[in-house]
Each structure stands twice: as C-alpha cells, then as structure tokens.
Amino acid sequence: MQVRVLLAYLILAGCGTTPASVDPYQQCQVSSREWQQVEEPSTRESLLSLSEQVSGEPVRKYFALNSDSQREVWFEDSDRHLQLCLYDVLGRSCYGAEIVKVTFTRIGTSWVAGPVMRTICSD
Questions:
Q1: Structure confidence at residue 122 as a pLDDT band (50, 70, 90)
Q2: Which of 45, 90, 105, 110 is spaced 20 to 30 Å from 59 by Cα?
C-alpha cells in the first residue's frame, strides 16, 4: 500500500503548475560557450536606431516591451559582437512564448544590425 501512495505522490508532484526557473541563456536559446551575458551597453540607443538588415526598419521597432513580464538581455561574444534578446519570463513553450533576437556586428568602428529573428512557440 505504501508503494502505491508513494507512486501516486511522485506522479502528482510531476504535474505541478509552477514553471521551472529558466535562465536568459535558455530563454533566448543562446550558447553560454559562445556568448556571455553583459550589462546594457552605453550605445544601446544608437544600436536600436540602426536599420534591420532585411526590412530596413529601425531595430527599435522590434524591441518594444509590451508587458511587465518581458525582459531585454544583452550578450557579447569573443569578437565583441553584441546580441540583444527580448523574451517573456512567463513563457512556458520553447523556454519562452516569443523570442526576438538580433546580432550587432562590429565592423571597424561602426556597427551593423543583422536580421531580426522572431521565434513564436506554441504547444
């Protein structure tokens, strides 16, 4: 009888509604081997003013915070390129309901914005 009770408890414990804590690397689907999380750069406003590679629209257009649960996080690689990611901390699918990312590449003393990548996950 005790085995059945324990088994039922373990099954029910796995059905909890509390989401697992997921760090920004997982949320943004970014490799911690290639990218390191950094503070918001002092050049943030000028980077967001750059034209996105595909649409030609300012990057800022894609990174407006729409809710209190959204977070903006910055990463830097060994070549000092930057990656900006916007994710929802309450997202539960694919480690986030929606992920928006862009990589800024340094060319000399200038920056170029790559294409904005949007991942929308659903169950």
A1: low
A2: 90
